[in-house]
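Page 42, continued from yesterday. The earlier attempt failed because a stray header line got pasted into the input along with the sequence. Redoing it now with the clean sequence only.
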Amino acid sequence: SNKLRQLIGQQRITTGDRSLAVTISVGLAEVQEEKSMGSLLRRADEALYAAKGMGRNRVYYHDGTQPVLHGAPEVVKDA
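This time it went through. Structure tokens are written below.
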């Protein structure tokens, strides 16, 4: 997922005289001993909001306790 984020970040979209960069934020969680999809989706959502809240263009993984940065972004932006 971090490699995918990097690959997407290297692409440029050119339209007219403009060149645009595209970035993605990713929130990941793995199936644990859930009894419903709700808790899995909640953890993935929390990880995604952490990625966006810390400046975007990041991958966060929810380890079951809290969202944790996975890899490091090339460009650190202010939140």
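Notes: The longest strand covers residues 12-15.
Reminder to self: strip header lines before submitting.
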